[in-house]
Amino acid sequence: MAELKKSLGTLRLTFYGVGTIVGAGIYTVIGAAAGQAGTDLWLSFIFAAIAASVSAMSYAELSSTYPNAGAEFIFVRKAFPKIDIPSFLTGWTIAFHSSATIAAVLLAFSGYFNTFFEVPGLLISYGVLLLLALISITGIKKSSTANIIMVSIQLLGLLILIFIGLKETGLPKAEIFQINSFSGTLAATATLFFVYTGFEHMASLGSEVKNPGKTIPRAFLLTMVITTIFYLLISFTVLNVSVRATTYFSLAPR
């Protein structure tokens, strides 16, 4: 069987990792996490990043040792070389999970798209799926270039939101760094762990990475650092806005 072409360096693999982590999740859970942690939201992001990084570095170690497109299937096969059932179940579980995730994301995208243009949701979903499939079959180098462009646009959008928020509210206020409810912080940490998931998909590109022994761990580390920085900036922006709003309403005449 022909081997996959090794075309991915640190930059391309890092962009792939950031793209798989930073998505709609941050917008859907940050409100709930802020309600749990209050002004300790930033600390919850750090705790969640530490917890996720432990798992991410485990993936980095395994995928650099066994760089293969099979990823988790191969890892389990290596752990249980004489028993086929664990790796068999792992492979099919990932296949079903990935299919369900793709379907959910496509439906969510079609829902957002319909707020601007009235087009049947299934038509949009199938259209996007076909477009991404066509990009993928052009090869890993071209598809990763397309990924870099899309992730850059996504990060630019977040930077604009962060810039506008901090411009209006100024630098993080002192109130933000006062530790309040540790139980709330831990509850928010569990909630925010979700926004760091996605790094595991980087392992499936192991067969297409140049010098996997060095590139994969480096890309995993950079991915976690970059996403954590972005999430912290978002948390500071959200907290600044909420502190300002609280101050405004507390000073308002009754």
Automatic annotation (TrEMBL):
The chain crosses the membrane at residues 13-34, 41-60, 89-109, 121-140, 146-166, 178-199, 219-241. Its main location: membrane. Keywords: Membrane, Transmembrane, Transmembrane helix, Transport. It is a multi-pass membrane protein. It is found in: Membrane. One of its GO terms (cellular component) is membrane. This is Amino acid permease.
